[in-house]
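Help!! Second protein's tokens look totally different from the first
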Amino acid sequence: MDKSNRKLFRIRNHDSNGYWLTDDRRYFEYAHLQLAELEQVTEQVKQLWPASLDKTIHAHEHSPELELLVCKRDLLSDSVKVFSAMAVEGFLNYYGVVRLGENEYVDHFERMGIIPKLRILLLVCDSLAVSDTDPLVKILKRIAQRRNMLVHPKAKELSGYIPAEERPGDKIPEAAREAVKDMEDFFREFISAVPQSSHLIPPLK
């Protein structure tokens, strides 16, 4: 039996020396910047809304300026949710490469779903078993669900016409605020679970 390709593997320390390229901190900052802009644009929309805020308006009732602002508001809300998820997933990929090295991480972890990735990374790197009820996993599930609804859009067949007032949708800017809060809470829970990782995590607000 040929054993020449076998080698002893050691997991790196949290503070291992090295050089890494990662975008997780940039995405973290983007989520915060876009949430701040979303809050401003939402207020502008409210000021220009030609009816009470709980009323839907028809196309002929709004100006091109209001139409553009509403589009920008919705775009920012979606962007906050996506970048919040990208910051978390980017961090997990970064953490895995720091602890395991890029080659081993890419071979064994990179293509995993985000929930299994978190659980197995913690198990392998930190001897920490987390269940589906763990706060880290519960927060990450919410983050992943928001992202998947946007980046894996699905169509639904309806039995009939649904007025705009009755169509499901996120509250704006509340949904984006929740996305940023979940992102921050995930990082705080990760530090709580693995205190040695705090220097790897984006500066929390």
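Here's the second one for comparison:
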Amino acid sequence: MKAIIIFYRGNDVPANVIEKLASVLAISGVEPLYCSTRDDEAVSDAVMQSSLTKISPSGKLARLLTEKVVDPSDQEAIDSAAVYITEKVLKHFTTQTMITMAITNCILGGDQEMRTAVKILATKKGVIKEPKLTKPILNVIKSIYTGLGQIS
């Protein structure tokens, strides 16, 4: 993970300045890009919390950067998508090939909820809490999403 963290003392940075910085980073090919502003209390809470727990330095940084950055509605969508795919497919199939076929068949059969769940898991950033959705399975889902984009 690479990050730019700016701490400063003074007045709030205007939103248009933050937007300009974000657009420069986006043009530079930085992806995914998360911008987060915090007041003194939020920064001190995050630093205090991370210093109280035994986490490696990189873990502290990752926690500080991701804490409260994920949009709650995105996380809710991820949770719902994970439950839907688990109930519909992962309860019945375990191999990547069978999972790929099952999800693809659902989508090609007109299951819009499956299509939406695949899109959410392939594009939204958040925490996957479902243990059956392992990294290889998520890669399968991302591949299906990419393939659907090429077909449509």
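Reply: Different proteins will give different token patterns, so don't panic. The two ends are 33 Å apart (CA to CA).
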